[in-house]
């Protein structure tokens, strides 16, 4: 199980601030593939540039996931 | 001393300066940067008036990211203190968004560290800006290549 959080443009496009995923994909890349496999709007929203944080640290496609992880998905940041 | 705050309320530059230098008479230089909401934005050839701005962030991760940026600056330059204050929520043109202050025995470290913190914050801290246009329409601000270039220059300057 992992806790997904969506921010900014992704949150709006998906119509959700997050969800609990009952499965635990092995890596960030596997997670994105699983979500894209749901079809629209996921496949379209996740086709753009998406950053992923695992337990609030920036992650890479091959970052491993573990049961209970918090995974944030968001567009490139624009603060400052 | 590292101080990080993500807040809706406006900040007081003098009060932040007082917090920064308090109790350390070895500080010889404080550099500060204040970012403000502009009343217009240029996207490619298109210039638009901006009536307001809403800032969203990732609670928890934002504070960690800002603290790490301040720690990295403290590893790289001789600093006695770093303060980063970033506002979230709805802001109007002219309002301050972000404050970075760096304190050092000497000015060069304070100046360089202040620029470094802003450059890295722009590309790594999880904040997102949404502009409100004069007709009430809203749009997410796009990330800029000039910002990633600015952050990238700290990677290959021989350090």
CATH superfamily (homologous) name of chain B: Molybdopterin biosynthesis MoaE subunit
Largest sheet: spatial strand order of chain B: 1-6-8-2
Percent helix of chain B, as a range, is 25-40%
Biggest beta sheet summary of chain A:
5 strands, mixed
Please tell me what the overall shape of chain A is. globular
User: How far from one another are the termini of chain A?
Assistant: 34 Å
Annotation field: number of helices of chain B: 4
Q: What is the string of SSEs of chain A from the N terminus onward?
A: EHEHHEEE
CATH architecture descriptor text of chain B = Alpha-Beta Complex
What is the alpha-carbon Rg of chain A in Å? 12 Å
CATH C-level class of chain B is Alpha Beta
| Assembly context of the chains | heterodimer
The proportion of strand residues of chain B reads 35-45%
Task: Describe the overall structure.
Chain A is of the alpha+beta class. In chain A, about 25% of the residues lie in helices and about 25% in strands. Chain A has three helices and five strands; from the N terminus they run βαβααβββ. Chain A has a five-stranded mixed sheet. In chain A, a hairpin with a 2-residue loop joins strand 3 and strand 4. The longest helix of chain A has 9 residues. The model of chain A has no long low-confidence stretch (mean pLDDT about 95). With about 160 residues, chain B is α+β, with helices and mostly antiparallel strands. Chain B has one domain: Molybdopterin biosynthesis MoaE subunit (Aldehyde Oxidoreductase, domain 3), CATH 3.90.1170. Helices cover about 30% and strands about 35% of the residues of chain B. In chain B, the strands form three sheets. Chain B has a four-stranded mixed sheet with strand order 1-6-8-2, sandwiched between helices. A four-stranded antiparallel sheet of chain B has the order 7-5-9-10, with no helix packed on it. In chain B, strands 3-4 form a two-stranded antiparallel sheet. In chain B, helix 2 packs antiparallel against helix 3 and helix 3 crosses helix 4. The longest helix of chain B has 18 residues. Chain B is globular and about 50 Å long. The two termini of chain B are about 25 Å apart. The interface between A and B is medium-sized, with 16 and 27 residues.
């Amino acid at each position: 199980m992992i806790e997904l959080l969506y921010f900014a443009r992704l949150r709006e496009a998906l119509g959700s601030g997050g969800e609990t995923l009952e499965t635990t994909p092995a890596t960030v890349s596997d997670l994105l593939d699983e979500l894209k496999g749901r079809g629209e709007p996921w496949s379209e929203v996740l086709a753009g540039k998406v950053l992923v944080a695992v337990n609030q640290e920036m992650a890479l496609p091959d970052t491993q996931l573990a049961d209970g992880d918090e995974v944030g998905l968001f567009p490139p940041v624009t603060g400052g | 001393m590292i101080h990080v705050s993500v807040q809706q309320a406006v900040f007081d530059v003098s009060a932040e300066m007082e917090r920064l230098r308090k109790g350390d008479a070895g500080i010889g230089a404080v550099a500060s940067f204040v970012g403000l909401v502009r009343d217009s934005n240029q996207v490619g050839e298109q210039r638009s008036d901006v009536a307001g701005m809403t800032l969203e962030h990732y609670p928890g991760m934002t504070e960690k990211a800002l603290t790490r940026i301040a720690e990295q600056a403290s590893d790289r330059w001789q600093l006695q203190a770093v303060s980063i204050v970033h506002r979230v929520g709805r802001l109007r043109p002219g309002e301050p968004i972000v404050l970075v202050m760096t304190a050092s025995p000497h000015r060069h470290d304070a100046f360089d560290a202040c620029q470094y913190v802003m450059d890295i914050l722009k590309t790594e801290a999880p904040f997102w800006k949404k502009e409100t246009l004069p007709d009430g329409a809203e749009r997410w601000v796009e990330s800029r290549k000039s910002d990633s270039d600015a952050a990238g220059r700290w990677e290959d300057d021989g350090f």
